[in-house]
Automatic annotation (TrEMBL):
EC number: 2.5.-.-
Name used for this protein in its record: Deoxyhypusine synthase-like protein
Keyword terms: Transferase
GO cellular component: cytoplasm
Family membership: Belongs to the deoxyhypusine synthase family.
UniProt source species: Cyanomargarita calcarea GSE-NOS-MK-12-04C
GO molecular function (one): deoxyhypusine synthase activity
């Protein structure tokens, strides 16, 4: 008998009162259902524990479907998400709910020409009025004129301020369930965007720049702050977890924190301790969204010693996220909020201090390139 045998598959008929935990633990027996079960159990037993800093990347149109309010916000309030990287589109459409606008279930086979004539927007099988976009845009442009936004900042500070204003609107409107941005603001969870110009939020920022706005989103701040979060996650024998919903640019921005630390800054050489992902992308096309954890090891993004604990579930994130949320909230005690947003300056300064100290010391890992001739024949000049 093979020593690699796992739990015996012993199917029993489902009862009418089956719980989500029972369903996942005992009926998700093979293939991607088993991978989802393994992720649920790994999160509950090892990841969502004190001492682990959990970063979540979010891509795909998740918030228009309501998952910002229904799943991600509860995870934040329970202390299960410490920091996030999201597409700007997810944050933009999340605001519709915070501002009290309505989105509706449709179907993917509607006549789009007719929808356009009627002033209706379609995101696959979600529909809403064109006025929702216009009024959300107007809200963004109005609040971005506030003095607090008239400076250079990273996207964490930008989204924190945005969430603050959205939360005030929720209170005024009596919105019962806070959206993702407002919840992150209240819980001190920093949210970054890897491509701040690639969304309607960024489009409105750009429009205001034509009017003389002094707001400048600086991606270098984000690169260093996210690296600092990953770096300081290991204090006091802590660990770092990467939970990836979808793929795309947010996935890379979350995982590149480790190469930034060891390849560019010359600090520690370790990857994230935990890696789980939900994706429908294939690895054989060479795209990042489908890139496997083992491939990430070659870049130093994942700790090779932790590779057996990395899990990829090939499924639709809209199926996985509500199931995982229900499971971990049932099985895991809430954690103390880390409020990493409030600690940004502190952890940034630690990264900067350690980087400058490491830079001043000779290192065999990162040899000097000054005066080195490369195959292209160009010489890197000596500089002061």
């Amino acid at each position: 008998m093979s020593k690699q045998l796992g739990k015996k598959i012993a199917p029993t008929p489902m009862s009418t009162d089956i719980s989500v935990v029972d369903l996942i633990d005992n009926y998700f027996t093979a293939y991607n259902s088993a991978r989802l079960r393994e992720i649920c159990q790994l999160l509950s037993n090892e990841v969502l524990q004190e001492g682990v800093t959990v970063g979540v990347s979010l891509s795909g149109a998740m918030t228009p479907a309501g998952f910002g309010v229904s799943a991600l916000a509860p995870l934040i309030r329970n202390g299960f998400i410490d920091w996030m990287i999201s597409t700007g589109a997810n944050l933009y459409h999340d605001m519709h709910y915070g501002l009290g606008f309505e989105l509706f279930a449709g179907n993917p086979f509607l006549d789009d020409v007719k929808l356009r004539e009627e002033g209706t927007i379609r995101i696959y099988d979600i529909i809403f009025g064109y006025d929702v976009l216009l009024e959300t845009d107007a809200f963004i442009r109005k609040i971005l004129q506030a003095e607090a936004f008239q400076k250079r900042m990273g996207t964490a500070e930008f989204h924190y301020l945005l969430g603050k204003y959205v939360r005030e609107v929720e209170k005024q409107l009596g919105v019962k369930h806070s959206c993702l941005l407002a919840t992150a603001y209240e819980c001190g969870v920093p949210i970054y965007t890897s491509s701040p110009g690639d969304s309607s939020i960024g489009m409105n920022v750009a429009a205001l720049s034509l009017e003389g706005s002094k707001l400048l989103i600086d991606p270098s701040i984000d690169v260093n702050e996210t690296a600092a979060i990953a770096y300081c996650a290991r204090e006091n024998e802590g660990k770092s977890a990467a939970v990836i919903i979808g793929g795309g640019s947010p996935k890379n921005f979350l995982l590149q924190t480790q190469p930034q630390l060891h390849e560019v800054l010359g600090l520690e050489e370790r990857g994230h301790d935990f890696f789980v992902q939900f994706t429908d992308a294939r690895p054989d096309t060479g795209g990042l969204s489908g890139a496997t954890p083992s491939e990430a090891v070659s870049w130093g993004k994942i700790d090779p010693d932790e590779l057996p604990s990395t899990i990829v579930c090939y499924t639709d994130s809209t199926i996985a996220l509500p199931l995982v949320t229900a499971y971990v909230m049932n099985q895991t005690q809430p954690r103390t909020l880390k409020r990493l947003y409030d600690r940004r300056e502190e952890i940034y300064e630690k990264l900067r201090t350690d980087y400058l100290a490491a830079k001043s010391q000779p290192s065999e890992k990162i040899p000097s390139t000054v005066g080195v001739t490369y195959p292209c024949g160009k010489l890197i000049p000596n500089t002061p």
